## 1
Amino acid sequence: MLRLPPFDFYTPGSLAEVIELLAGEGPETRVVAGGTDLWPNMKRRHQKAERVVSLMAIPELAGIEGHNGELRLGSTTILDDIVRSREITERFPALARAVASISSPPLRYMGTIGGNICVDTRCTYYNQTEEWRRSIDYCMKEEGTICWVAPSSPRCWAHSASDSAPILCALGARVEMVSKRGDRILPLTDFYRDDGIDYLDKAPDEVVARILIPSDSDSARCGSSFWKLRRRGSIDFAVLSVAAAVWTDDGNRVTDARIYLGAVGSRPLPVAGLADCLEGRLLSEETISEAAALARKTATPMDNTDFQAQWRGVMAARYTEAALREIAGLDPRGLPPQHLL
Amino acid sequence: MAEPSDGKQRDESLDLPGRHIGQPFRRVDGRAKVTGTTRFADDLHFPRLCHLKLVRSTLPHARIKAIDFSSAADVPGYLGSLTGRQMPHPFGILPVSEDEHALCIEKVRYVGDPVAAVAATSEEAAYEAALRVEVEYEPLDTIDGIDTALAADLDRIHDYGDGNNIHKKVSMRFGDLEAGFAEADLELEDTLFYEGNTHLAMEQHATVAVAEDEDRVTVYSSTQTPHYVHRALAKVLELPPSRIRVIACSNGGGFGGKSDVFNHEIVAAKMALELGRPVRITLNREEIFYCHRGRHPTLMHLRTGFKKDGSMTAQHLRTALDGGAYGSYGVASTYYTGALQTVTYDLPRYRFDGVRCFTNKPPCGPKRGHGTPQPRFGFEVHLDKAAEKLGIDPADLRLRNLAEPGSVTANWLQLGTIGLRRCIEAVVAGSGWRERYGRLPHGRGLGLACGSYLCGAGLPIYWNHMPQSGVQLKLDRSGGVAVFCGEAEIGQGSDSVLAAVVAEVLGIDLADIRLCVADTDLTPVDLGSYSSRVTLMVGHAAHQAAERARKLIAQAVAKRLEVPRERLIFAERRVFDAADPEKGLSFEDAVTVAEAKWGTLGTTGSYIPPRAPGKYRGAGVGPSPTYSYSAAVVEVEVDPETGLYRPDHVWIAHDIGRSINPVLVLGQVEGSVYMGLGEAMMEEQAFRALPRHLSSALVHKTPSLLEYKSPTFHDMPPVTSYLIEDPDPQGPFGAKEVGQGPLLPVPPALANAIYDAVGVRIDQVPIQPQMILKALDEKSRGRQARYGPKVFPEVDFGEILRVLTPAEGGDGHALNEHGEKKAHGMSGADGTMSSRDEALKDKDGAVTTK
Amino acid sequence: MAERTTTLELLINGESRVVAFPTHHTLLEVLREECGLTGTKHGCELGECGTCAVLVDGQPVLSCLVLAAQMSGREIETVEGLQEGNRLHPLQQTFADLNAAQCGYCTPGILMTAKALLADNAHPTRDDIREALSGTLCRCTGYHKILQAVEGAAQLAAGEEWTPAADSLHGATPPDRGSE
């Protein structure tokens, strides 16, 4: 069987201890929460660690709490607890939907929200065993020099694989990180970088402590939706996801709209030009079609996951349309994905 | 010693209600399987067990220059290594293509080809050591598919075969084809493609080898064919077979994927003998994609003549198979892409040309349906198109063309009973076909297709005069019956069939039976769990052995009770007088009486299939004691805007002859539908070549359970299954096969349903949504509403073997076949069994085991 | 300080035992190799197939993706603990009777996951069952018999009678042929 290589394992009981353990550490020290991403990656040897620090014995990192309307999600909150939280299903239904679509039920009993927003970018040239990667002489993301998805490209095109990230970005969430060097909070959109290798603005000594969702994005004020494309009704990662959040005025005119596309870029991609397209207008068949066309332009699906890349681009438009139609109270049409049944 | 059973002399058993036969009963291994006590090969443990790891090629095609173990040997726990030079004898499942070595010697032929082996005290150490083995290669040309394989002037993967990188070419013609086409009112041509896919049994192949002496070894393995593993081990290890014991553990799924002999099985045995301690190897999931032996990617071209009434006048089928790097069952697979075309419908004249290519990919072989799902897909989609052109309902077109029960086909296959009419009627009625086909709203459709399959291959893969299946019984005064048989349980329920047949004949409970199976030291040979042969062949052998035991007991009891033997009934764990049921003995007492009369009791049973009428070269592939039939209707919903689709329901009917245990039969039917849908919708054993100017790599695209898409709970629609029972005299208690046949109609039924839903033809599987979208786009531009391959490659198939059909007064021989390769069974053993009759005639020449 | 070897008291199927193992070993490895509990199977070791599911504090967890070192004080349940004495658990009964375990390799993981489902939801709908079990791949059954078996077990567990539907044992009867 595939096994983990040996490492030093730490299970500190407090955040203070974690910070101390991580102080001055580099990439050979890794943090683990649910383990559903790190352990497979280490078994296949494309992520390596000398030391692994678990966050799962730190009570203060888990839990869901409201604070002046802001929702604070502890980073080690189990995904299934998010799905079952009434506060989240009522106030942020698209987030609940996105989290409920992650992988399969047992993985949601194990995985955490912090782990999900940090999940490694994916690529079929990378998520393979050591022996397989030797057979292609590795790739740029690990050991090698070429991005096999786009050999003439100077960058890595591994794609963002988080289901919660696009919707959290759309909802304007912020992420709070702590380290010995100090705490910082940044918008989740800035947490992600458009690079398959260096995809997070997070230093090895930093720990994601909480995710903060503003009260503005509460379902009372904001319409939101999440559509996800994957081959099978369970287990699979998204090969495309569309997360949309729309704010309207009393006359149903759009005051703000954000759509983020997952799995068709190295980070959740904001649909460009959306403000010009939608702001001040009603969500109608016409405006929705225009927004969908923008999504098609934004998406950069590559041939590095399941399904034909070009068709995933077509689906970016289709699912953007479906998500916006759903927000507008229109029939989303077509065959709904399993996670909406 | 009596003649082996030919399965013919038990007509009276066909219609009797069974105490076990025909009743749903809990499978005999059911309790073990739900309590976690079934022992799979990876679950075995022995003192001093050490671990083996194979070093696999990282290049698709290369010459081996040097292998360096020095760094590997530094790993703590390292015990030893092996290279191919220590096991120089080649092996392979078919005598004609023994082209594998336990470890590669001169060349590697695909990424994943085993090139060296290391053993260590832990699996972790073995893995680390394997990573450190340095192999120096000299790269050769990469052959990545059929077209490259057909091209001249590239490095050859093997130095045998039919030229370039062609492994095997076959060309045969049955009857006057051109006369047939001349009679036709409609001539239809189609080119289709069926992508390769793999078995993906959940259990990862494992082998444990235990050295028992310097020249004696026991090998426990997840294998469907312990007998063939036994033979190959004897050959490669250069040991008498009597010193090798192979035990097939319960298989965690097979589907054909564990019916070859694998490198790791041989290397484990060799390593155990070298180290003098037990050795285990359990492959990881990626390595199983390299073992493969799955569905051949197959390009097909069909040309068929139809009359206005829908009857067929002639068909010419051409197939091109991407065989991967080794022979495996490939010669048989190639023949199978053509052999069963004639079994379902009346096809008076038929020509088949097939070619199998070597490519630098894991070898293809037999997967559920072995070689026939591809042409079945082609044929049934082709028929759907013909039905439309002829203005005949697709169900009616098939009903009009049904093959005649008991007839001999154009290619000389002897048919048995045919329940296909009732199968079609069942799915037509169940699905509401008459009211709904062609009338559902745009985006929703129904598709129908049929299929047929072997109930055991008529010939063994190496010629011999011996039974294909054997059973021994041991009875004693305890009243318990021990049943010994070489069959291998792979999840299909073969143990339960074996026990049920014996219990039925002896009138005892399943709990009175103790099974000992799949152990080459202790059990009589059964060739293995492949070709849907077990129920029929093991069933017959078990029946014969049990009948013989019953006779011995009856004679003794008749004497004791002073009752005529014919009046004795074996039922309810008693042996009693039919005229006076009170008068009798318990089964235990009856056996005691018999043991006293005859001494220690033991009986045997064996089975050899009937001889096939075909005598031409190649006639050995296709014959079977009888054939099963299936029909399916799939209902699908298609989103024309995205090409996404979802099968909503499958109705399937299967001609089982007679169920031994209907609940097991249903399991096979439902599992076949599942696997057929997986192949039709998403499963692909696909490969990735890197840009040629940068790399010659050719790697498996998705060697994982995450990325090789196998349908989950959410992807499986409801299935309504109908079991059509019409006992076949060739089957034990009338039973036919069910393990493979029901897969066959599913992929074409889905493709046909998509056509009914949105009016586009997808002439290849798996059917991807973008294909539907592309075809819809073509349609909207007024072009052909179709997605699929356009051309079949130019292949010179050489001289056509010309055979007259039975209707033309043929005798089963080819008109232009020459005398070569007929003298001895083995010398002519090209694996295609050109003339079994010849082999059987010349008994002295047909020495078969080595 | 991190130790490369861990010695821990594990509570498995209600029995506690002290086990020593390399710290980087997963629960799967420790169950099978240190405890001899080989009923828990493995199909990928990467969290992709659900075969190795066991219950930890009543929740289905993939034993290939948790370290045994993290199991201190947790209640672990495996297929070996499912029987009640020498009697089969209702799930085991219905799985055996309906041939919901064919090769039986994915069965232990499915049984444990189904047990957690029934503990949480005594009367699950077919969709509930499908979703709860959707993390496990089975290549033999086509899933139907599994769904029927979990439904049957829910009835048995609720103290109700369970008689398998005729069509789950004999197949369906085509509509126009009546009850032939």
Note: The radius of gyration of chain B is 27 Å.
## 2
Amino acid sequence: MNDVLDVALRLLVVFVVFLTFPLIVGQTEHKVMAHMQGRLGPMYAGGFHGWAQLVADGVKFAQKEDVVPAGADRRVFQLAPAVALLPYLLVLLAIPIGPSEGAVGQVIDAGVFFVLAVMGVGVLGSLMAGWASANKFSLLGGLRTAAQLLAYELPMLLAAASVAMAAGTVSLPGILDAFEWWWLPWQIVGAIVFFVAGLAELQRPPFDMPVADSEIIFGAYTEYTGLRFALFLLAEYAGIIVLCGLTTVLFLGGWHGPWGADGLGWVWTLLKTAVLAFIVIWLRVTYPRLREDQLQKLSWTLLVPLSLAQIALTGIVKVVIQ
Amino acid sequence: MADQLQPTKSRFPGAGLAKGLAVTLRTMTKKTVTEQYPDAQPELPPRTRGVIGLFEENCTVCMLCARECPDWCIYIDSHKETIPAATPGGRERSRNVLDRFAIDFSLCMYCGICIEVCPFDALFWSPEFEYAETDIRDLTHERDKLREWMWTVPAPPALDPGAEEPKEIAAARKTAEKLAAQQAAPAAPATAEPQPAPSAGEPRRPASSAVPHAEEQARAAEHPTRAQGDSRQQTDQPRQEGQE
């Protein structure tokens, strides 16, 4: 009975985090983007500086009609948002935020492997949506998503592999236990490659070619309305949380901090994740969208070689210090 | 400015990317430019073209504004009144009385020609701009509404330091100085010591001996004619360079 309660409580906490954190990131994006553009952003919803803007948006989405195009592959079309969203919930379950046993949803021995595999499934949602919509723009968006997935999954995996090599384990808590502060400069190239490739996988600007609204309307999500469209948006922001959390755990030392008591490790994790989420927003505001060929070129000619070099460096240092 | 626009080769790869990040971050720390209009009134410059106010005491129903209006959005009705002669045996005068003055702001394009063309300063720009209506026909505003807006017209902005004196004031001052000089001249031989000259810009009632002359000059002050030096431009001879 106690075990059941424990599992239920963990699931509940992860679920609440999954529902609230993306909204916080979304609201922060509204505000940060506005101020970076010299605007104020939402000011009315909720009274104080528009804090309830995303709640209002959610209510609006829920009221809208859920339209399925006549020519669409009905079942696949309706299933796609769930496929896009649920993997991030699963990944969130495996990310440790503190050193103790209770600070992770579920300890998975093959953590890195699990996390990257499941994150790859999330992109499948966009592919399904693009194919099932029976719309040329959706199809274009879906194909671009596929091309992007192929290009960026590889450097992401290689960068994560470098950390796993350094720690000698693929368990996320295991990597954090082995973490030393000098891993930061040692793995910095891998960290940047991982973060950039993760951004591309989330299709965040400047890597938002698959949803480029000025040329293919909204890519794979063109035909979606109402709640299903909102789920795709939620998936994007949940993806930011997951990506920033993973980068924190793999490369920035998670709960390790220069100071702080033992019980405050989770504060460090959340702080680092928040800073990374801010950087995600910052990059979105700053850079224009990469063209499709530039996107591919960046991955194959820059990120893949860099991640390979990082693996070589990791191997050399690992051999030297042993 | 020009060399900023040209792409510059920098020594560090990614220096341009970093510069972009710096720009957005700096903008974030600066004050926003958003006007929170319904909550806070905007600060409008004094020459804002918000609405046209009518000062109907100055209006003589000359119809110049209505004729010059490119949109024909000014409606004026009037009738003539006869004023009995002021002196016995004099001629009766007639005068225009304004019955209706309306501007259709659904047609008005805010060019301001009516204000420019008004010879008697009866029309003014007001920065008032909140007069939206739900029916387009309600945008034709009558004289009482235009008069209300007259009281929202701000004082003209102060002249720049060192700016040329306004023509009206200059002409009035000149006349006053001349009058003062005339007054002083006949008084000088009569008394042993001359009176000090009256201060400039203060028109004084002229002495009785100088009345016909002074009235003519006072009229000249009300309608300032072209300055002496400008008249040369109206001659047929081409203007010679370097003569001045």
Note: Chain A touches chain B through 14 residues (CB under 8 Å).
## 3
Amino acid sequence: MIDNSMTPGMIFLSASLINNIILMQFLGLCSFFGVSTNIKNSASMGLAVTFVAVMAGVVSWAVYHLVLVPFQITFLRTAVFVLTIASLVQLEEMFIKKYVPPLYSAMGIYLPLITTNCAILAVAFLNIDYSLSLLNTVVHSFAVAFGYVIAIVLFAGLREHLVLAPVPKSLRGYPLAFFLASLMSLAFMGFKGLFGL
Amino acid sequence: MGYYAIIVFGGLGLLFAVGLAIAGRLLRTAEDGRKSDVLRSLPGVNCGACGFAGCEGFAGGLISGKAGIEKCASLTEESLKDIERMLGLTPGEIVRKKAVVYCSGGKNCSGRYGYIGVETCRASGQIFGGHKKCDYACLSFGDCSRVCPFGAITYKKGEVPVVNRELCTGCGICVDVCPKKIISLVEEKYPVHIRCSSKDNGNYVRQVCKTGCIACGVCVKVCPKKAITLKDNLAVIDYGKCNACGLCVERCPANTIERALPK
């Protein structure tokens, strides 16, 4: 369990490796399987997720503590966070389209899909559930996104090699990807209990 | 407290909307307006015959010059002209191709074993090469019919699927999906086809199939243009030489050679 008593380094380690958002918490799986066919695309997806996760973490933290708590309407947080994240993704899409067009075309449909990426919403919720300070929120959001990047880039690297492997026809493509993901998840379970986290 | 909820939530929504509107102004990009026009003229069926991810990708490829318009298999004459005008291309001809199933067996072709199972050609084809005695036979479960995005292939169970040449656009998806690989794309202007793929010798073909090519050579002799040759126990037509006179269609003893209707 992450809380304010931990140092930022500990929070980072815990959120990125030990409680890896994809391989340990099984969130954000759609993009994990969808955009992991080559390392380049998966890395740019990871970049987009990192950007949105940190922004969404900070903004939703601010909205929660500055708007929802004073007005005593914290029960609305799901709806408000979804609204916040959707707006942020719109903003990011415009930004990337304007300044990094190649990245925009590389990410294609997956950029708007970050709106519904459950990993992002999870970051916003976890920051509140762990009642983190603003600094720790930034660290935690970044760490979760970093964990996402680690998982998806590793996975994409493995899948690039699998394309060339003589795999039985019935397992080619997604079936084997599912097996692979489960094995990676098992491997990440090895981090459990590291430093007593 | 209920009012707060509505006002605050609505207010937040309004705030974000205004913010996005302003950002939209500031970050507006000059988009190539032709792309949406071109996209509208494309068929929009996303068949993938052009090699791009759907019609939108193809439209982008056309504008950036990475793709030629002839790659689109299912373009109508008017849309072709529209797009050529939009992109300032010199008007050209599209070579139109139609799918031809090189088998006329169906019920005329005898079975190797009784097949009970998933009724797809792919499933049957995995068991000893399919349930027909002929290794080159259409398995007649209609995979090509189901996969066709234009509904151009109809089939009755046990019979060779029929390609509707009006609807077929030559996208080639059926060619890809057929496990026996007996479908080919042939230019529309050639109507006479030898509808057999069997390389087995004539004696065996005669035993297993009533309409298979037995490589008797009658068509070779009768053809005034010398367009037909015997190759690997099979009569093969050189479409470039064929003048569609139809003599071979009349004389073929096994009725393997057919003229595509109605043209």
Note: The domain at 97-259 of chain B is CATH 3.30.70.20 (Alpha-Beta Plaits).
